[in-house]
Amino acid sequence: MPKVKPHRTSPSLDMTPMVDLAFLLVTFFMLTTQFRPDEAVVVDPPSSTSDLRAPESDILTLTIDSKKRVFFGYDKAPVKEAAIRAVGAKYGVTFTPSQIKQFSLMPNFGVPITQLGSYLDKDTEQRKALNPSLPGVPYDSLNNQMIDWIMEARKANAALFKKPTFLAIRGDGDADVQTVQTVIKELQEKDINRFNLVTSLEMKPVAGAAQ
Amino acid sequence: MAEIQQKGGDSGKGGKKRAKKMSTKIDMTPMVDLAFLLLTFFMLTTTFAKPNVMQLTMPVKDKKPNPDEQTKIKASQAVTIILAPDNKVFYYFGLNEPTDKSVPVPEIKVTDFSANGIRKVLLDRQKQQPEPIILIEPYVFDGKQAKYKNMVDILDEMNITNQKKYALVDISKKDVDLIKTQKLL
Q1: Domain of B177: which CATH number?
Q2: Do the Cβ atoms of B159 and A46 come within 8 Å?
Q3: What does each C-alpha distance from B140 to A62, A163, B82, B154 come to in angstroms?
Q4: Which of B35, B58, B160 lies nearest to residue A19, judging by beta carbons?
Q5: Does B35 touch chain A (CB under 8 A)?
Q6: What was the ipTM of the complex prediction?
Q7: Which label site among A133, A168, B42, B159 has the fewest CB atoms less than 10 Å from its CB?
Q8: Would you call A205 and B148 a contact, using CB atoms and an 8 Å cutoff?
């Protein structure tokens, strides 16, 4: 048998195809990435083994923090514009076009409708400073603005995009269970019975194995 | 001074430009480093953008509940889990009917959210009783209450143990009384 001679190759290799691929991927990820917008409240959702993913769009998020506050958020600007007009009309509050524009840019908010106008007039930095002391959207049975926001946003989304709304509850791990239950009960009153609790992923336990 | 200026101008203008012979190959390593750094960054940020969700479907609320149509839970099937404050879990088997003397008063046991805690209890119960019905009651009384995390944890346990029938309900007065009489809180 003839012996296989090792080829003598140059140690420097042509990196061009690799670089091409790398830049292609960089471009792809750069274009597809959506950066997380500045939210009014930071919550730490509990973990679960559920691996269901939230859909791409049409997500209505109710953020519940540990101070019993509820924040309302929607991911589409036109829906928010329609909702603020409708809810404003119901409570007899009118908003200027610039306030509506400002509102549609915010990922979520947590102020009663009567204070919303002055909150929207502030600039981003002032709002950020104000956020820890916000009262949240009122959700008690006497003054239930939360349900109005949800119903108007759902109506607007159905009218504008002909799509159902995905309702996500994003609660902080330390939030009171009573607050979450109250929110769920009020939604049930409006025949909304399907909820999605936002959680962070944790590994599934292996069957039979003790941790 | 003028001389210096002239000299300087002379060397700038009059000097012949020599085309340096450079290699056509340039060192691409720093560029590749940067490209891969960016690639890693964007890859990691995109993967975790979408949140995970846990579905929770509540029963349709009956506006006029008809007691005849409501199915009674059999005592042998019923398991009540109470989410207590401080990450504790109370549970008892059977029904708690303080007014009905024929039903024995259930004994509340205490466990936790670890793998050997409530999960083991549920799996053992499923072996004894093929179709247990679980009532989850978060404890809310006297300012003390369970955390939302506990609620998600217990719903997660339902998924892990493949428990089909369970309901999330408000804690009843009789269960609060039962906890009190057994001096658990």
Answers
A1: 3.30.420
A2: no
A3: 22, 37, 10, 16
A4: B35
A5: yes
A6: 0.75
A7: A133
A8: no
